[in-house]
């Protein structure tokens, strides 16, 4: 069953969570594991800690910290200095925050920067996040999974900074590789098309008295929003496109943005920049709906401004999306077509209108990100730092401190209970819980011991270090073919059984699995942050291999050199 699972992980595009859950279900049907044991894996303290870390990280994402740092790292004309600054910022952030969230937060500022091609920055961004995550227990889900597997096997719980003994030197080695080799090896592709498919077309008016009047687009940082790109300016009925960074903003300019509508509230931080007309602002505060225009709609062929949405639907059009087509001009002048996706600011009577079904295929609610700024953002960051510090100093178990942190976030209004489901990555929860169960089956059934004995036979007489290196390299090979979490789940039982067979401490072998499962440098599919930057950087598959090979070599040299020193046999 484990061999079949491994083959399916490599040969199919089926999500690893589904495959792991399916394998566990087969073990349950055959009586290899009981229902009670399965349920016990899903309330494992390490898995609960992972869920709480994801929830807390979602609150930190709302603060302006990552956005501000993203703009701060790129100043001047030296690519190597910018990469060095980026690494020094990303390493500590990804050590305590979700790696995916960190990369997503920095993606916009780095992709839209005026200094360097995005392809010179985005792979190093992903690599830096991966390396930083190896330095702490909560830096990556892989470390938390390995900790959970170790607890299940009867080992002691790992401390927050236990990973730093090898993780920090690995970061330093990776830092040198990124700064020295990436500028030379990375391609200088033209910036990826920033007006991308599935992006909304929306506009904001510069009101009189705004502090942005008389300043250039670059000075106002209108081109540096995370997920919104300034595509055009409408001025006195004229269309200004493309928009130069040196374009001076004037009163009553209409700024046309293209991008992720869920980040539309990021525009509100600008001084007197109105996303909607005055009568529609109140509607935004109450509700937003996303609708798809039906082919039977009476609105087809009509301009938005003459469609009378207020009278017909008690709604106003906020933004428009038309597949992969690039829209231009004012929203009001767009002629509606079947399949157009509209974002509507709706009033209390919207849901009561009988004409919704004949005009729209789909009506869904849209929740916008509510950013934390000022004192609220500082307080959220301070509470998070205090929770991590309590766990690091042993004042409280990390699980307990995170529970208290989430309670305080809810009490202060930084976090809503209904956000729990949206922020918890169900795929990771299913994969981790199933992996814990499969690991238990492998250990209890003797399968891992059988594989470990065969591995010992191949390395007979080579000593503990050779076996340690073998486990590490096996995990590195796995992580290039399957996900990091899957690689850790598959390799852990082998590592643990190998250590027991050699009658040495299992800790260095377990840590080898953790560090090996984080060596996701060679392919875009090995880790989610690599995939996040794949499209925006316009990368080819081989770009990861060329840049990842020297980094993997240095990383492996550091890990295998320091593991026996800080985690003796």
| Share of helical residues | 40-55%
Mean pLDDT: 79
Structural class: alpha+beta
Strand content: 5-15%
Shape designation: globular
The tally of strands reads: 9
* Estimated radius of gyration: 26 Å
Secondary structure tally, helices: 24
> In angstroms, what separates the terminal alpha carbons?
32 Å
The unreliable regions are: 191-198, 277-286
Biggest sheet, in brief? 9 strands, antiparallel
What would your notes on this structure say?
This protein has helices at 2-11, 16-29, 35-42, 45-61, 65-72, 79-96, 99-111, 122-133, 141-152, 164-185, 217-220, 278-286, 309-313, 356-359, 374-393, 398-411, 419-423, 426-445, 447-458, 464-481, 484-502, 507-517, 528-534, 541-566; strands at 200-206, 228-235, 238-240, 254-259, 273-274, 288-293, 315-321, 341-346, 360-365. Strands 1, 2, 3, 4, 5, 6, 7, 8 and 9 form a nine-stranded antiparallel beta sheet that branches. The chain is α+β, with helices and mostly antiparallel strands. Helix 15 (374-393) packs antiparallel against helix 16 (398-411). The longest helix has 26 residues, at 541-566. The relative contact order is 0.14. Among the domains are: 64-190 and 447-566, no CATH class; 200-259, Regulator of K+ conductance, C-terminal domain (Alpha-Beta Plaits, 2-Layer Sandwich). It has 24 helices and nine strands.
């Amino acid at each position: 069953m484990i061999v079949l699972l491994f083959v399916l992980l490599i040969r199919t595009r089926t999500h690893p969570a589904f495959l792991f859950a399916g394998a566990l279900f087969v073990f349950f049907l055959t009586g290899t594991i009981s229902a009670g044991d399965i349920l016990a894996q899903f309330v494992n303290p390490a898995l609960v800690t992972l869920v709480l870390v994801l929830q807390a990280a979602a609150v930190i994402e709302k603060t302006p910290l990552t956005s501000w740092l993203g703009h701060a790292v790129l100043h001047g004309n030296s690519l190597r200095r910018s990469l060095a600054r980026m690494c020094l910022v990303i390493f500590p952030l990804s050590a305590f925050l979700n790696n995916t969230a960190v990369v997503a937060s920095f993606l916009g500022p780095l992709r839209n920067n005026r200094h360097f091609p995005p392809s010179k920055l985005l792979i190093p961004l992903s690599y830096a996040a991966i390396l930083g995550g190896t330095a702490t227990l909560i830096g990556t889900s892989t470390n938390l999974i390995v900790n959970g597997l170790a607890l299940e096997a009867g080992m002691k719980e790992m401390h927050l900074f236990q990973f730093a003994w090898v993780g920090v030197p690995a970061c330093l080695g990776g830092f040198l590789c990124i700064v020295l080799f990436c500028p030379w090896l990375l391609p200088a592709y033209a910036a990826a098309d920033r007006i991308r498919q599935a992006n909304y077309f929306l506009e904001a008016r510069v009101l009189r008295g705004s502090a942005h009047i008389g300043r250039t687009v670059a000075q106002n940082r209108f081109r540096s929003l995370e997920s919104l790109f300034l595509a055009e300016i409408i001025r006195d009925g004229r269309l200004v496109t493309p928009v130069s960074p040196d374009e001076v903003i004037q009163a009553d300019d209409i700024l046309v943005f293209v991008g992720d509508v869920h980040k539309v509230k990021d525009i509100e931080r600008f001084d007197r920049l109105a996303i909607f007309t005055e009568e529609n602002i109140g509607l935004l505060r109450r509700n937003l709906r996303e609708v798809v225009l039906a082919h039977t709609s009476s609105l087809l062929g009509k301009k938005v401004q003459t469609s009378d949405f207020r009278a017909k639907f008690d709604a106003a059009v906020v933004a428009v999306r038309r597949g992969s087509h690039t829209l231009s001009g004012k929203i009001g002048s767009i002629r509606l077509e079947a399949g157009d996706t509209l974002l509507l600011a709706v009033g209390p009577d919207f849901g009561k209108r009988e004409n919704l079904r004949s005009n729209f295929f789909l009506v869904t609610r849209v929740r916008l990100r509510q950013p934390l700024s000022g004192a609220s953002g500082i307080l959220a960051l301070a509470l998070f730092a205090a929770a991590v510090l309590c766990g690091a100093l042993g004042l409280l178990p990390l699980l307990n401190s995170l529970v208290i942190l989430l309670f305080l976030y809810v009490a202060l209004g930084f976090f809503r209970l209904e956000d729990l489901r949206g922020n918890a990555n169900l795929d990771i929860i299913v994969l981790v819980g199933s992996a814990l169960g499969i690991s238990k089956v492998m250990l209890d059934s003797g399968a891992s011991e059988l594989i470990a004995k065969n591995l010992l036979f191949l390395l007979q007489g080579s000593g503990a270090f050779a076996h340690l290196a073998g486990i590490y390299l096996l995990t590195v090979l796995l992580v290039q073919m399957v996900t990091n979490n899957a690689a850790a789940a598959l390799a852990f039982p082998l590592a643990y059984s190998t250590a027991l067979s050699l009658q040495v401490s299992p800790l260095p072998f377990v840590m080898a699995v953790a560090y090996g499962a984080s060596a996701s440098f060679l392919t875009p599919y090995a880790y989610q942050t690599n995939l996040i930057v794949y499209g925006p950087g316009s990368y080819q598959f081989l770009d990861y291999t060329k840049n990842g090979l020297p980094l993997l070599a240095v990383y492996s040299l550091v890990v295998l050199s320091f593991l026996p020193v800080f985690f003796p046999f």
